[in-house]
User: Fold Hydroxymethylglutaryl-CoA lyase from Dyella flagellata.
Amino acid sequence: MNTDSQVRIVEVGPRDGLQNEKTLLPPDIKIALIDRLSSTGLKTIETTSFVSPRWVPQLADAAEVFHRIRKVPGVGYPVLVPNEQGYRIAREAGASEVSVFTAASEAFNRANINASIAESLQRFQPVLEEAKAEGVKVRGYVSTALGCPYQGEVPIADVVKVAKQLYEMGCYEVSVADTIGVGTPAKARAMLHAVAQEIPMHALAVHFHDTYGQALANILACLEEGVRVVDSAVSGTGGCPYAKGATGNVASEDVVYMLHGMGLTTGIDLDMLVATGAWLSAQLNKPSASRVTKARTTADT
Ligand code: HMG
Ligand code: MG
Assistant:
């Protein structure tokens, strides 16, 4: 049993959240969002993606956004890169932490990055080598860890295999992701348990989308299993452009509320996070997907 009471939230809203939002936000709003998040006590904020702008138009301003955000000492600002080209552009923009991403199912990977799983790992090899030489931290994602929009069921052994490869290639942390939000707690727990037989639990993170409303329950099950790093997005925005029907990540406000209620610490000021989530939903002109933000802002009016 993991008795550590500290949980690190990896805020992915500016990247995973915004990448699938139809309303194109100008760089100034994205910068204001990240700067606000930097004041909440978050320790890790995934800020943007250096992917092809043709594939993800919302994040075509990655370099400008990364340049202009306030970098608070002690806060990590990773960015997503799909290949060496993205890595180089990210480095030129000043990034010192990156995330690479592949999947446990072939069809999803093909739709998302136009590569097989093996090809994607080959693409990451030079990224990981350069990163090691340059002292850049690399995080790895395994998408479709609890189900694939094309293949359906994904064998746990496939998730374990890909996660292990990313870790062995040098990723300091591997985030196992329920990209389409279909997982349920016992399955999530079994998957994490199996991955943790190969990778130390302290190097694992969980990443849930909330399509079927299971994300908080899944996180609770994974906390009981021992994980202490959780990905989430303020206001529960977004989804994956290459996973039709998938909704946003679990809302950071809801995760933090649950964690604090359990006596776990995050270092995050929930009121500031709620204010940021309410502000973001106004920018996107849509209601927040966070139940906590809805409850608090309704109570205020
Ligand atoms: P491709 O078309 O196969 O690539 O795309 P290519 O190598 O043939 O290049 C085509 C063009 O893209 C070229 O330009 C390249 O220069 C350019 P052209 O000569 O045609 O003008 N290009 C780039 N431009 C900017 N930055 C780059 C870059 N690389 C190539 N890094 C590629 C392959 C990987 C580029 C493309 O498929 C892509 O960008 N995919 C990104 C998809 C994406 O961002 N998906 C969402 C993120 S993943 C996710 O959300 C899941 C996660 O949250 C976890 C979970 O929930 O599961 C992480
Ligand atoms: Mg995601």
In short: The chain has one domain: 8-297. Residues 8-297 form a domain with the TIM Barrel fold (CATH 3.20.20.70).
